[in-house]
Amino acid sequence: MTGRGYTIFDTAIGRCGISWSPAGIIGVQLPEVREIDTRRRLYQLYPDARELPPPANVQIAIEGIGALLRGAVCDLADITLDMTGIPAFSQRVYAYARQIPRGETRTYAEVASSLRASGAVHSVLQAIGRNPFMIIVPCHRVLEAGNYADKISAHGGAISKRRLLSIEGASPTASKTLFDVLLPVAPPRTHP
Fold it and tell me: What is the DSSP letter of 133?
């Protein structure tokens, strides 16, 4: 492999993208609403990557991602990631997230505590929010306190953590309702 490459591939949730370097996978893009938007996002993130047929190791990652998105059990632990430019703390968060079993979740606070950085909940949240390795690093398994299935990440496409957890057969997660959002900030009602 020379230089960076990318390809678009079909999955059960839509057309995903993957980009690689000679050192490993540099990013996975979940589907946007339209394929052109998925391609645009890949170009924004990896402007020096060319569309190429995937090499064998990337094809294995594509097949694994596709299987997981169909609900099949698949282990992506051996997929090599190119962590060039990824901060050391984020690398630790990603390594931990890769160990969370399918169908299970952890909170940002549990991840921070497991990394012996209990005061770093916000840093864990930021690392998960910047995860370029969607599905391979299963950031959808890391949730807010209360197990709220929040938005997947800034570059996660149009899919939610809740949908990915559902595909994996995870226990239902609580989702914030309008009441959950408004009641804590609503002024108390006074009775005449």
Answer: B
